[in-house]
Amino acid sequence: MSKGAMFLLEPVNPLEVFTPEDFTEEHRMIAATAADFAMGEVAPHMAELEEQKEGLAPELLRKAGELGLLSNDIPETYGGMELDKITSIVIAENLVAGGSFIISHGAHTGIGTLPIVFFGNDEQKARYLPALATGKKLAAYALTEPGSGSDALAAKTKAVLSEDGKYYILNGTKQFITNAGYADVFITYAKVDGDKFTAFIVDRDTEGFSIGPEEKKMGIKGSSTRSLIFENARVPVENVLFEIGKGHVVAFNILNIGRFKLAAGCLGTAKLALKHSARYALERQQFGLPIAKFGLIQEKLARINTATFVTESMVYRTGGLIDDMLAQVGHTGQETAKGIEEYAVECSINKVYGSETLDMAADEAVQIFGGYGYSQEYPVEQIYRDSRINRIFEGTNEINRLIIPGTLLRRAMKGQLPLLPAAQKLARDLLTMMPAMGESDGAPLAEQQKVLENMKKVFLLVAGAAAQKYMEKLEREQEILGMLADMVIEVFAMESALARTLKAIQREGEEKASLKVDMVRSYFNDTIPKMETWAREALAAMASGDELRTQLAALKKLARYTPVDGVAARRRIAAKVLEAEGYTC
Fold it and tell me: What is the pTM of this model?
């Protein structure tokens, strides 16, 4: 099993990377079930969902439960299917035709249910999980407060043990809680005695517990979002989840999975936006031609398809890594949560990249539709509104950009990730190093493979300089951390797409994989200049004079790249998109 974030230091074997081409028949069957349910049962009620017709969302969730779409992550012992994480993201990706129903589904099956799966004791699992598996009971997750969003540990909700020792008395308010309007079970966090951050399972009928009114939201209107109010709420002591003072362990591990699943939903929605865009481009006539014939429209379609392909490659690669880990530690319990934490960096990468890909796809879809894209009569208007929340959910993208390098450096300081020795070695080698370039060996995508290796060194160059200059004060330099995060994200993105394509070439030949090859070459074309710009700006913020000139000379060596004809590549990609009338690879 590869350790988390080791992709920065080691080459990846393409044959060991999980890709959508590796789906089993069961994966495909469940994908079809989820897609059919979204199209057949949810999409026809989209307008009613948007108006929050009373009882509709929970009814649809229960119908999903009857099809097994709520129980994938729940152990068989407690009425679940206990399937792999690839299946979880297949479901998340394919429910998106139901609009914001995917938000309600994700809150229930992910952050609402998994805390009990991973951290509940046997009695709690037996009491809650069978009903959560079927939808008889629905779940919500209550972490955010009016004064503590990204800073979750600053929560002010308090819990005090009652005199008889049978209850914890909770006082406080939670805000922006998905599924609050109809959930039966709330995973809630409070500070015992004002300082011990602790997780609780709160039932809807708890004495002293009430629900606020619906929020008036920009998008995801079909989901319920309300506040929770605790006024001397009496929560039985047996509803403490995990351990007193260990709520942060529950919260942060569950957020890793939440980020990972959110990326899958963004992936599915980006594909949906592209399908609408391609079909509209073929139908819409301007100047006597379908707008699909225009180069700037084709460029948009190609860029959406390429970014979606990269996202898909990243999401399923990460799913494969997590499943490899689960094969060793099991699918349930605290060891599973600890194992998933190993890939916290990858989960944050997926969340940031997936949400920003969807925002780009939604924005370009509206542009392709023109004025009609701004009208509620056309589907991309809702996609555009709904997409924006994903950069805020599950930790803002800014917070996740801080988590990525912060986690890397913390592991490096503990000796868990040999990042600093690699950076020090690179600094010694760079003065005499001449990076090998070109496709002289004739292997497919040979130059991209060499460039990827150099981009990892670019990251090490900047990370090493940052660690040396700021040491333990680096956490205060958020701009530098943000640029380091962007470099890590793009390295993982490039490598995921490249590994998937090389695997496809080995299996079916370069000709059949030609679309993937075009997308990889086009993507590298666009990404290398960005990597160089981030590195140049970060180095200039940390050094000057001869030191800076030396670093920039090393950067120039590493960033050397022969561009391909991106215009021709994007035209070929767009032609395939239009032929497929949507996403294709």
Answer: 0.96
